[in-house]
Design brief:
By secondary structure, this protein is an alpha/beta fold. It is 50% helix and 9% strand. It has one domain: Alpha-Beta Barrel (TIM Barrel), CATH 3.20.20. The protein is built from 13 helices and 7 strands. The chain starts with a helix and ends in a 16-residue tail after the last helix. The relative contact order is 0.15. It is an enzyme of class 4 (lyase).
């Protein structure tokens, strides 16, 4: 099995090129040295707000909690002229409750599916979950790939399953979660990115993580995926979007991730059609920074309504 895994991934990397880990780490270290101040900072903070997928993914979720989440997405903070978030993200059973509030607004309804976060369910079951979420009003589906199949070298199986989920989505946008911490190496992340992008449509996403493992989005794995998107676009003309998820909790982190996008993909990717943050815990810190830029004073965290836990 190990030789099959290595040979399959190696063949793909021979096509798309391997990753230079040292080069990646050196490049992302430089992003943190960039200075963003005054009007540029306010622009970046508002842009980040508009890119958040505001999320609740707990077993104790209720229609009331989802309703509160939707109101937060539509009106992030009184007294601030800031945009809505990009989407609310909920389990499939909660989609119909979100639809009552945000359907028809600028806020999209996203739903995790395909036996999130493990992906360990029969394909028939995973596809049924996708179809049910779309039927209830989901505009976007966040799916998880079969990491076990990928690591076993069954790349065609992984790609065929992504294609099947894409078909089940219909017109809904698909976000393919690689679960980068379980892929273990930058080479594997690059290979999985290309594997997904080869069957995706323009405007569909690749995504780092479920937010349910010990390691989630980092500047390093984000950079590997951004460069994969760039290289795929240059060779095919297909514009794939990107979503880092989990572990991005501060405005400073978000601005650094946006610097990475600008310097790797350019301004064309600096919008919520092509870049998202799966980090609901981030929103209140963005709002806190915006209030500080407006008033000159930091507000205590309790001045901001609760948002969902980080995802």
């Amino acid at each position: 099995m190990p030789s099959r895994n290595l040979s399959a991934i190696r063949r793909l990397l021979d096509e798309v090129g391997p990753v230079d880990p040292t080069g990646i780490e050196e490049r992302v270290a430089k992003y943190g040295t960039r200075s963003v101040k005054k009007a540029a900072k306010v622009f970046g903070l508002n842009l980040a707000v508009s890119m958040v997928d505001l999320t609740t993914l707990e077993g104790k979720d209720t229609p009331g909690k989802v309703a509160s989440l939707c109101q937060k997405a539509l009106h992030p903070h009184q007294g601030l002229d800031c945009p809505t978030t990009a989407a609310v993200c909920v389990y499939p059973a909660m989609v119909k409750h979100a639809a009552k509030i945000v359907k028809g607004t600028e806020v999209k309804i996203a739903s995790v599916a395909t036996a999130f976060p493990s992906g360990q369910a029969p394909l028939k079951t995973r596809l049924a979950e996708v179809k049910a979420a779309v039927a209830d009003g989901a505009d976007e589906i966040d799916m998880v790939i079969n990491r076990g199949a990928f690591l076993a070298g069954e790349l065609s199986l992984v790609q065929d399953e992504i294609a099947s989920v894409l078909e089940a989505c219909g017109a809904a946008t698909l976000k393919v979660i690689l679960e980068t911490s379980e892929l273990e190496t930058y080479d594997n992340i690059r290979a999985a990115s290309f594997l997904a992008m080869q069957v995706l449509r323009p405007g569909d996403f690749i995504k780092t993580s479920t937010g349910k493992t010990s390691a989630n989005a980092t500047l390093g794995n984000n950079q590997v995926m951004l460069e994969a998107i760039r290289d795929f676009y240059l060779s095919t003309g297909t514009e794939i979007a990107m979503k880092p998820a989990g572990g991005i909790r501060t405005a400073k982190q978000a601005l650094t991730f946006l610097i990475a996008v600008k310097e790797t993909l350019g301004d064309a990717w600096l919008n919520n059609q092509r870049y998202r943050f799966g980090a609901s815990g981030l929103l209140n810190d963005l709002l806190r920074q915006l209030v500080k830029e407006k008033t000159g004073c930091y507000q205590a965290p309790y001045h901001f309504s609760e948002s969902a836990s980080s995802y």
